[in-house]
Amino acid sequence: NPYPPNVQPVCFFDQCSQEEYGNEEEESMDGKIFKSTLGVNSGEHSLYPCDIIEKSSDDFFIVRVHCNDEQSFFLTSYPKESVTFRMKPYMSDQHLQGAFRHPIGIEDEMFPAQWK
Q: What pTM did the predictor assign?
């Protein structure tokens, strides 16, 4: 894993919650479902942790998307623009020991009456 310990690669994948996976070819091996895909939904609700297995071409990766503890997908021809990075939970700078935290006092008179 070449990424810093606080970074998690995530992939856009809209088929984790679906019962039917369409007419694309599927093969089950060792409890994992392998599928080749070209179309990927880019909705924020479709982000799942993933591992980048290898770069298959300049524009595509081979990835493993982890939908939950029991289900993951091994995807070939996965578009590289559908892979992004997020902070792992509780690993952002605000959680560093010694991070500066101090309440900022602003007088109530500075805010309009509608905001109060």
A: 0.64
